[in-house]
Amino acid sequence: MAYTEGGSSGVLMDDPEGVLHHRLSYDRLRDLALAPSDSLTFIRDVLEEHRP
Predict the structure, then answer these.
(1) pTM (predicted TM-score)
(2) By CB distance 3.0 to 4.6 Å, which of 10, 26, 38, 48 could disulfide with 5?
(3) pLDDT means per 10 residues in the chain (52 residues)?
């Protein structure tokens, strides 16, 4: 099973190929994500760069 949602709707799917597609997409995004502490540092750095 996989669940996706957008601005005004959500979809629960049980098609094995669709579920696999979404699982692989999620896995790729997770692998590219920063660690939580690195994310916090990144966000703080961006805020500092854009403060007037």
Answers:
(1) 0.65
(2) 10
(3) 94 96 96 97 96 88
